[in-house]
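re: the backbone from monday

yeah here it is again, tokenized this time
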């Protein structure tokens, strides 16, 4: 009887450990855009004194026309929407608007 009790205890402990080890998945939904879009994350060197929120993204099309100038988000991400698939684009990052 004592062995059955020990076996039962071990099985219960294993089940508890199995369920406690499962981590909930924090899935981020994929966002789709209706037009060609450029999105990214800015990487700054360690020890940089520049804040991501002080940096601008400037997008220029293949006709040398400025498409947009916008600030990088404080979390260092940026999204530029409404682009044309017929154009080539240059992206510049600057601290001056």
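seq for it, each position gets an aa:
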């Amino acid at each position: 009887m004592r062995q059955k009790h020990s076996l039962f205890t071990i099985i219960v402990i294993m089940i508890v450990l199995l369920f406690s080890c499962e981590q909930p998945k924090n899935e981020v939904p994929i966002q789709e855009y209706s037009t060609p879009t450029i999105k990214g994350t800015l990487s700054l060197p360690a020890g940089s004194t520049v804040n991501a929120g002080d940096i601008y993204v400037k997008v220029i099309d293949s006709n040398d026309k400025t498409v947009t100038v916008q600030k990088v988000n404080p979390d260092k991400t940026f999204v530029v929407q409404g682009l044309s698939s017929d154009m080539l684009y240059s992206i510049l990052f600057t601290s001056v608007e």
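The helical segments are 2-21. The two ends are 79 Å apart (CA to CA).
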